[in-house]
Amino acid sequence: MQDKVQKMSPEIRFKGYTDAWVLRKLGDIINVNSGRDYKHLNKGDIPVYGTGGYMLSVDKFLSDKNAVGIGRKGTINKPYVLYAPFWTVDTLFYTIPKTENDLFFISDIFQKINWLSKAESTGVPSLSKKTINNIKVYVPTFKEQQAIGLLLKKIDDLIALQQRKIDTLKLLKKALLQQMFPENGKDIPRVKFNRFSGKWEQRKLGEITNIKTGASDLQDAVEGGLYPFFVRSENVKRSMRYIFDGEAILIPGEGKIGEIYHYINGKFDYHQRVYKISDFKKEQIDGKYILFYMKRNFKKHALRSSVKATVDSLRLPTLNNFPIIVPIYDEQKEISSIFSNLEDNILIFEMKLRSVHLVKKSLLQKMFI
């Protein structure tokens, strides 16, 4: 029996569009196609896609029409646009819009659907063509679909651009971390400033800084507290008291050793299982230089000092005995300035990316039913 047609309109619309949206089944507006095995194919320039994205390239295509990919099994909640020609593996459906339906609008509809709630297995999440075809969605006229799809595609392009900028800066930072600090057993880096000469001096972290743990516990955290409270995670809580005032690096003594670093110059509280590295000698040791040197080298040192393949708990001697090679103070400042600027720019682009994602999320809520 044919479903009763229901009509509604979204909260926000482009000017000039007044027709009500109509409730349809996905099977009325798309054709769902199955992927296939590619192992019999030769290498080529046709991309093969799976649920996680691009895999490799082959010499034949499965489709010569643009489509929206959606996982059949495994990752079923990450739809994405597939540009023809392409091949998809058997765990990825490719859905082609029927006549008078817009590809990018369909892609946006797919992003709104809670695919995990449609899963047909209690084990590995899976979807069937029947399930997809029976999902009901509201759709406008083809022209309004095109207008909405084009707007959100521009936002997707902006998101992709911001992500590429972030990825490029992170790759640059990673490369410079390798080049601007000496390799093991060497006392000068591969890349250094021409105006600075001389070999770098090897010291131990405990010789050039003061290292100690905090005195607070999680129960001391206060929402809306006056001071940052550093605990054993990337998240910074708040406290009503401070137990140190000055420049410091803070790292957890348990969990993700060598992966979490906080830097601050001011008043703060810190957990009893968090190490504070401070008291950098004025005009001799630059705190941020120590920070970036540790980001590059400390995890390896901690692993070498552990009897296990992972480091669950960090002991004070491991920190005190961490070998660190330092140039003169002015060169330390130059190096730390480069990495500080890189991290600041990465943070700016990440904030912009979050803002664009929020804009898209809002539009998906207000421009669709």
UniProtKB/TrEMBL annotation:
E.C. number: 3.1.21.-
InterPro entries assigned to the protein according to its UniProt record, in alphabetical order: Restrct_endonuc_typeI_TRD, Restrct_endonuc_typeI_TRD_sf, Type-I_RS_S_subunit
Sorted UniProt keywords: DNA-binding, Endonuclease, Hydrolase, Nuclease, Restriction system
Highest taxon listed in the record's lineage: Bacteria
Gene Ontology terms: biological process: DNA restriction-modification system
One Pfam assignment: Methylase_S
Residue ranges of domain Type I restriction modification DNA specificity in the record: 20-170, 199-348
GO molecular function ontology, one term from the record: endonuclease activity
Signal peptide: none
Family from the record: Belongs to the type-I restriction system S methylase family.
Protein name as it appears in the record: Restriction endonuclease subunit S
